[in-house]
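Figure S7 source data.
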Amino acid sequence: MTTKKEIESIIQRQGFADYKWINPKDIVVARWVRVKCTFGCSDYGLGTCPPNTPTVSECEKFFKEYKSGVIIKLTKFADKNAYPSEWSREMTNKLLETEKAVFLLGHQKTFLLNQTCCTLCKECPGNRSDCKDKKKSRPSPESFAVDVYQTIRNIGMDINVISENPSEINRVAILLIN
Ligand code: SF4
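Tokens for the predicted iron/sulfur cluster complex:
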């Protein structure tokens, strides 16, 4: 039986220091998030974004199948006009390594909601069937209709809308475990 400490040491080994355990039933799923994905987000239609993700009610049911998970928060000082893509790729790879290591401990349900929508390829065909890296592509919490702000605040972590640029930006990943 794996202990939380073993999982935490995997998370820390990848360099993540800002994380918190969550009961996935407490993840806030909201229709407004899906509306904002659909209208106003330039990533709409990418391979791991709506409309290639489950419906909002299916997402809600999906989270209820889990008993534990970890929220991992990333922070980076960045200019929104020069997004730190290299850093983002590095973080995605570390999160995928974390997912794999936790799975290999025997947690067969382990699934990562990545800190960003999938941008692994320069050109994305925009559907699941033609995805060029099906093994690595993961959806973001937002593409699964997670109200990230409310979820984070409910577990006592801090997150705010960024109004200045450049500024510290936050990215949030959710590692669902069992
Ligand atoms: S791996 Fe590439 S093709 Fe697949 S969803 Fe991500 S960006 Fe699109």
